[in-house]
Structure formats: C-alpha cells, structure tokens
Amino acid sequence: MVMADSRVVEIKNLTKSFEHLTVLEDISLHVQRAENLIVFGRSGEGKSVLLKCIIGLMAPDAGKIFINGNDIGKLSIKELNLVRKNIGFLFQGAALYDSMTVRENLAFPLKRHFPEMNEKQIDDKVKYTLELVSLEEAIDKMPSELSGGMKKRIGLARSIITDPELMLYDEPTTGLDPITTKEISELILNLQKKLNMTSIVVTHDLICAEIIADRAIFLKGAKIAFEGEIKQLTVSNDPFLRNFFSHELIKV
C-alpha cells in the first residue's frame, strides 16, 4: 500500500453515466489531509454518486480515484476493504439498525473490522465514542427511542468508532431544525479537529457549510462549475449562485 504526501483523496478525470445520463463528467479534484471540503449542487447533480465512487460502492466509467495514493480501481476486494477501514460514511438517515441497541450498533463495525478485539475492548471503545458525542446515557436505548438529532449523533459515533482518517458525509443535517443543525455541524467540526480527520461533506445547508468548510465546490451540469471558499461562493455576483444560495439554502 502506497502512502501519499498530503493528499488523502485525489480524483482525476472522473466520469460516471447512467444509460444516456451523464451525472459526472471529467471531474478532477483533490482533498488535503485534515481539510474539510463541501460539495454543493442541486438534486440529481451527482453529489452522492461522487461519494459512492470515492468509497468504491460505484465504479466510474472513466478516470481514477486515489485514496492515500492507492488507485482504488486497481485494488482487489481484500485491498479495497483495507482502505475502507480508514473511511467513515455517514448516510442521510444515520442508517442505524433498528433491531439493535445503540451499544450493538456501535459495536458492529468494530467486530467486523477488528476481530482481534475482545468484548471488554469493544465495550470500552463504544463508551468512549459515545462520550465524544455526549450521549453516554443512550447506550442501551433502541433507535426508535431517539430523537432525530440523537440519531444523527449516534450515526456519527458509529462512523468514527473505527478511527477513520477520511469521513464522507451525505447531507448530515437533513431534516433537522436550525439549532440542532448548528449543534451537529459544530460536533462534526470538533471531532474532525480532535481526531485529525479529512472530510468531504455533501450538503444543501448553508449553516452546516459555513461552520465546517475550508473549501467548497459546486457541481452543475456534471461539472465542477465553481470552487473556492464559502464566502466567495455566497457573495458571488454569478446569477446562478445568487439564486441557489438565496432560495435553496437560506430557508431558516
């Protein structure tokens, strides 16, 4: 396995189509170590597809994706799974197993990826990770007993419990009120700094983006149409960006 210098993710000329619809065309970008990249775009513009290609859930039609210098398109399943051990993925709905307690939900990825850990080590890690998201008291609750914000926190805890170097977030604050959105976004930022993680965050939420982002890109027409700091995008005189940020993001 080859280690890169300061680039955790590097994408070169990525193209992905579904039948006659091209959702990503000749996309090239990189994400530096400990950087937080926001990915904006209207619905259907390929944001989630981009994340799935990065984690290897979808194969691009053309182009290459490197994680820590490893060309994931050339890896065997075993090698790809080793790379995935260092990647956390937080889905829109937190993706908790409804039939498992919080304790069992968090223990699941540890048992899967670290079979050498004993029960005490797993339980200690679960409790420590719940402390990071301030939900130690929820350890034996079922997902049905949790609020939307609590589910997001537990989903986040499960995503980081394997100590990933790279975190991928797909709309982490969808469906949350502005106060909870701010709390979750600040938690993501604090955890990123504490654990020195690199993050790629797909979001429509300006509150979330302004708290988290070091840099942002905007997908439009299967291309990266805009790139820069959040303020550069939100104060841009470009008619498309002005319309997007005024109508799609600022709804609070």
Structure description:
With 252 residues, the chain is an alpha/beta fold. The chain has one domain (34-62, 80-249): Rossmann fold, CATH 3.40.50. It is built from 9 helices and 10 strands. It has helices at residues 47-55, 77-84, 102-113, 119-132, 148-160, 178-195, 206-212, 230-234, 239-249, and strands at 7-18, 21-32, 36-41, 62-67, 70-71, 87-90, 166-170, 198-202, 215-220, 223-228. A 6-stranded mixed sheet has the order 6-7-8-3-9-10, with helices on both faces. It has a 4-stranded antiparallel sheet with strand order 2-1-4-5, with helices on one face. Helix 3 crosses helix 4, helix 5 runs parallel beside helix 6 (178-195) and helix 6 (178-195) runs parallel beside helix 7 (206-212). The chain is globular. The mean pLDDT is 91.
